[in-house]
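haha ok so turns out i had the wrong file open the whole time. this is the CORRECT one, sorry everyone. sequence first:
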Amino acid sequence: MRITFVFVYSFISFVKQYKVMTALEFTYQVASLRSTLYTFTRRFTSDRDESLDLVQDTMLKALTYKDKFREDTNLKGWLFTIMRNTFINNYRKGQRAKTSRDNTKELYFLNVEDTHTFNKPETNFEYKDIWKNINELRDELLVPFKMHTSGYKYHEIAEHLNIPIGTVKNRIFHARKEIQQKLAGY
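then structure:
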């Protein structure tokens, strides 16, 4: 009995000394900052639904990664950092996806038939003129440049042409530079 009491007493003094926060206390403190987080979302967006989603994502990440939180850290600042990073990551995902939103009443633009016609670049004079200028490059610059624009990686071009990777990068750089000079009027 004495050993148990000493252990409990030493554990309580450890908790008081190092201010170890329990999971329940952490959850309560995060939940109590919900309105502050919602106010902070106005720096990023004026859309109410997007703000609520951002607060929810922030709180979910905070609770999921509560073991990453250090006691000597400002909880509000930690949550603001999570929110900012979440917003930036979501923004970048949206940019990569190139999604568009239809904010019209009854989603008017989503229900409209797409009747656009696009010009084919092969028939465009400018397109032909650009490629004429590109094809006038010296072969030592043209081959690595065309391979790179076709999607080959630097190391793949180097292996295929049996030249060092630095030479490949240099030739692509000089090809771009010459093309820019030739196409200065565009």
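The radius of gyration is 29 Å.
again sry for the mixup
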